[in-house]
Every structure is written in structure tokens, then in C-alpha cells.
Amino acid sequence: MTPEKYLLRKLMLPQLKLIYVEKISNKTLHYHCEKETVWEICRKRPTKSFSVHDHRTVSIRDTKFHTKNIRLIIRKRRFRCPNCKSSFTESIDGIKVGFRTSEKYRNQILYKYKNFHTNKSVASDIQMFRYSCLQSCKRKIRT
Ligand SMILES: [Zn+2]
Description:
Blueprint: H1 3-10, E1 16-23, E2 28-35, E3 40-42, E4 47-49, E5 51-61, E6 69-80, E7 87-89, H2 103-116, H3 119-126, H4 130-142
Parallel strand pairs: 2-6
Antiparallel strand pairs: 1-2, 3-4, 5-6, 6-7
The chain binds zinc ion (ZN).
């Protein structure tokens, strides 16, 4: 197993291929990733789509790896559906559509939330804003 594969398995995002690691600072690493499928399924009416017409880059916050903050920079493809003609962005297992954090990261927040009880200690512990922390927990509880 290559170190790249090991890292991505560790992050539990096996669909992604690591293109390169960018060192932002001593504390922060950016993992540039892409998905390598030939086709994607349109969510409206399940139809295989092969035609990529656009790209967008998303930045996803993940759990810490050792002492490093990991941010996934994913170049997502936008496909055109041959059936309904609408365009859609490819989905990645482990990252829900519309979220800016991986599911593992949110599970970790929820775990800390349950264990420390007060929102404040969670936020200071993982250094994020109180509001977004609360939103993540609420979303997790609802689903
Ligand atoms: Zn469609």
C-alpha cells in the first residue's frame, strides 16, 4: 500500500485519489484530491452520465491527522445528464452534498459535544466557531 492510499483510507474516503500534498504551514496540510470514476449517476432519475462539462473546487475540513490540520481540496466534476439535461456535481462517499466538512469530522464533533456537554468547550477544543459547531450537531441529530 502506498503512503497516499494509506492516508486516504485513514481518512475513510476511499473513492478519492490523492494528487499531491501541499504544505500550507507547519500545522496545516492541503490534500489535493480527485475522484476517478468514468461516469456518475444523476440523482433526479438514475441515469449514467459520461459527459463532464465543468469543474468546481471544494475545500473540505477533515479531522486532524497526528497534529496536523487537514483540508481536502477536491476538484469535483460537473456532469451533464443525458436524460434530464440538467447538470450535477459528482458526489463523494463520506462527504454529504452541500457540506463543507467530512462526515468523520462531524461525528468527532458530535462525540465531543456529548462528552463535554457544553458547546463552548467543544468549540475551543477544536478551534471552530460556536455557531457552525452547533449547526453540525443539530444536523447530525436530525438525520
Ligand atoms: Zn437526470
